[in-house]
Amino acid sequence: MNAPNQESFRSGYVSIIGEPNVGKSTLLNGMMGEKLAIVTPKPQTTRNRIMGIVTTEGYQIIFLDTPGIVAPKYLLHDAMVTTAYHAIKDADLIIYMVDGSQLPPALETQIFERIRETESKTVFLVINKIDLLGASALLPIIAEYSGKFSFVEIVPISARKSSDVLQLRDQIVAHLPIGPHYFPDDQISDLPERFFVSETVREKIFLKTQQEIPYASGVTVEEFKHRSNGKVYIRAIIYTERLSQKRILIGDRGGMIKQIGKLAREEIEQFLNAPVFLELQVSVKGDWRRDARKLKDMGYA
Question: Rounded to two decimals, what is the model's pTM?
Fold first, then answer.
């Protein structure tokens, strides 16, 4: 890539916020053109702030995907909401994302208040899942939100359509300030490989298990070694809160944990572009979602 013209080069931080399951992670992945954030049909999948960096000759956008904002029931929820609001503090542009096919978010007033407390005056409303709506249903939604907040742009999209995502990206660039090259051209995130490995395992837990199991499960990578034979050895521990949850995760004759491991290993191999030996263990860490010390040990500060 040629050196950018600093007189016209645009850059900035763009935080994506909203309630769970509105499509924030799908939007990030679409902006990146590859998978950075795990995506499942279940709400509250994202627990951490995930950075994705898009760099061209003319601009650099640092996207921050955030956990869905909820009314906290656990200390884990408190950490997730704090992470989301912290990400908008210094953002150059805020995307408030809603699901157009659902009722207005229950915490919308609170979210607007937090946005108003920031210094950012550039706020987009992105109405997602418009493929589930007719034009007659979309127009009243736009009119309603126009009266709720002074959005710089209101953009209806389907985050699964690349044409919609690229059009939104162009609109974002137009509102970014002239700025520096914050990161090297080839850097796409600030998170280590271990993080993406643990998230991939957690995604497969969300996809393969039901009820409370996905939410009561956390994953930490204990070992990550590149061996002389070209393989990557990874040992990860899946924590649950109850012995009964551990038994479900292991499954009859180890069937469930084998399925989770197979799906995760295949995707991790694509991500690392190397053969992987993935060892998964399941352990009980009682009530970890409610315990500040345990949350910190598992990476949820």
Answer: 0.93
